[in-house]
Amino acid sequence: MRRLYFAGLLLFAAVSLQAQTLDGAILAAENNYYGTARTMALGNAVSALGGDLGSIGINPAGSAVANYSQVTFSPGFTNSRIGTNFTSPEGDKYFNQLNRTSGKLPNVGTTMVFPVGGKGSGSSFTFGFVANTTNVYSETFSVFGKNASTSQLSAFAQLANGIDHSYFENGNSGYYDLQTAFDAYLIDEISGTTDQYIGATENKYIDEQTGDIFVELGDQIGQDYYRRRSGSKTDLLFNFGYNYLDQLYLGVNLGLPVLDYRDDFTFTETSLRDGYFQTGFRRSEEYEYTEYVGGGAYAKFGVIWRPIGGLRVAATYQTPTVFSIEERYGWSSYLDATEVPQSETKAADGNFAYTLRTPSITGLGVAYAFAGLGLLSFDWERTDYSKMYYTLESRHSSEYSSIVSDVNADILNNGGSANQYRVGAELMLTPSVALRAGFTENDRKLSDGSYSTRRSYSGGLGYASDGSFFIDLALRWNVLPDYYNYPYDLYNDNYTQLVYESPEIKARRRSLDAVVTVGLRF
Predict the structure, then answer these.
(1) Burial 440-455 (b: 16+ CB within 10 A, else e)
(2) How many helices (H) does the chain have, and how many strands (E)?
């Protein structure tokens, strides 16, 4: 029976279920709105404003505010800036900065307005289709450090201890990561034993008097940490809006979110000096990937009320989203060692399918427009992540139901709630030119009472011609929570004691979004 566990990673028999975690669920459920350049420049505080195709995903009633039809196209890019720190178990620190830029199309769409009771009646129906990006995954973490105390291969060996080597030799161990490590000779059984293992970075010594076997790291090693996340979540929206006498605006969306996410992780260890390893160790590489794609459906309802003059108040409700997700995952292991007869890559992969139900979202907004001068707007949204849960597809064996139950229990106990606050302001420099600024804060309360906070600062310009053409520009600076990872920390079976320490990976995460929107009103 295995007594040691990776921190934050449950190794399940036959399948890893990598994405079926609290963090994986939040990744699919969380909204970091993009939209048009105007809405992004305003911090997406547009729930009570409407009139813009970027606002429709936030409040469906926004389509009813405009008394004209329109079409928009919004290309852009995201530049992520990740500063990654590596701290060895001895306390030595290393650092690397990496930038990555990826192009996006965060918004495209059109709405058509049909007056009710003839032109000038003040009432109308609106139909529209809009594609709005609600999350972008674009991060690369990369850092090199030196470690004189521990090794990933030693951690694998300790994880394998207690498993009879015949399971690995038959290829039926049920632990894909350890199986590939064994097949590639990253770990091997200690001669004279049937269930004890040694890593290729370790040396074995025997006490001549007692016969006891001692295993220790052969020499200081270099360690390369590389992780890349990519993909996006985009909501395809079918919208219906109704304007009643330019005082009450109602709207509903059928939302079809499309999820595309990939996580590639590589951990490499290298010898810094020749001749210090009994295996002739030179280099090892452990690669893992998780990819999941899927689609879902939800309904969203919104209302905007204009009681007096420039004042508008709004409320929204989004039903839970039901995602159908297919996960693909895999590992590969490679070893280069002069005393190992077969140094080659060994790999294993698989797929899994499940349903994820994300929580409902409620929101409130208020805005005031100063005639000919500009506007101020405030939004609030709330999400309860403890309401999420997974369901296995029926084609999968019922033996995994207990695993899913454990994950759902973790979500219920540790999911927490999240609040999103948005503030936006617009100043009309001329009747055709507007200056905009905005701020967004996402706060998620964690199980220990602390908060995970993401803040965004935005600004932009807009120009609207006397005819139908308009163009907007927005820039947004995002300050994300620090990222922590411990590639191979080992804990005892109840996670109360750290028994083998990996380096700490800590990353300072920042990103810059830029969007240009070109549109026509007719």
Answers:
(1) bebebeeeeeeeeebe
(2) 6, 25
Q: How does 411-420 read in b/e, with b if 16+ C-beta sit within 10 Å?
A: beeebbebeb
Tokens of 199: 């890593």
For 429, which DSSP code? S
| Cα–Cα distance measured from residue 390 to residue 262, given in angstroms and rounded to the nearest whole number | 19
> Do the Cβ atoms of 517 and 73 come closer than 8 Å?
yes
Say how many C-beta atoms besides its own lie within 10 A of residue 354's C-beta: 21
Q: How far is CA 223 from the centre of its chain?
A: 25
What pLDDT shows up at residue 398?
A: 63
Give the Cα separation of 47 and 39 in Å (integer): 10
18 burial via Cβ count (<10 Å: 0-12, 13-18, 19+): buried
Other beta carbons less than 10 A from residue 432's beta carbon: 12
Give the residue from 112, 116, 117 showing the smallest Cα distance to 127.
Answer: 112
CATH of the domain at 507: 2.40.160.60
What local confidence, expressed as pLDDT, does residue 414 receive? 86
Tokens (6 digits) for 24: 């994986």
133 in Cβ contact with 107 (< 8 Å): yes
Nearest 5°: phi and psi at 21?
-140, 170
Range of 130's domain? 5-521
**Chain Cα centroid distance, residue 293:** 13
Which residues of the chain have a pLDDT value below 70?
1-20, 118-120, 172-174, 342-344, 394-400
Identify whether the C-beta of residue 410 lies closer than 8 Å to the C-beta of residue 403: no
Residues contacting residue 276 through CB under 8 Å, at least 6 positions apart: 218, 219
According to the model, what pLDDT value does residue 343 have?
65
Q: In the prediction, which pLDDT does 38 show?
A: 98
Which residues lie closer than 8 Å to 57 by C-beta, 6 or more apart? 33, 35, 130, 132, 134, 235, 237, 253, 255, 300
Q: How many CB atoms lie within 10 A of CB 274?
A: 11
Contact assessment for residue 291 and residue 351, using Cβ atoms and an 8 Å cutoff: no
Q: What is the DSSP letter of 431?
A: S
Domains in the chain, number: 1
d(CA 261, CA 250): 34
Neighbours of 220 (CB within 10 A): 15
Rounded CA gap, 484 and 452, in Å?
12
- Bridge partners of residue 375, in order along the sequence: 369, 426
State the pTM of this model. Answer: 0.90
Tell me if 225 sits within 8 A of 505, measured CB to CB.
yes
Long-range contacts of 159-164 (CB under 8 A, 24+ apart): 159/2, 159/4, 159/5, 159/6, 159/11, 159/490, 160/187, 160/197, 161/4, 161/195, 161/196, 161/197, 162/1, 162/2, 162/3, 162/195, 163/2, 163/195, 164/194, 164/195
What distance in Å separates the CA atoms of residue 100 and residue 252, rounded to the nearest whole number? 37
* Composition of the chain by helix, strand, coil, percent to 5: 10, 55, 30
Residue 115 three-state SS: strand
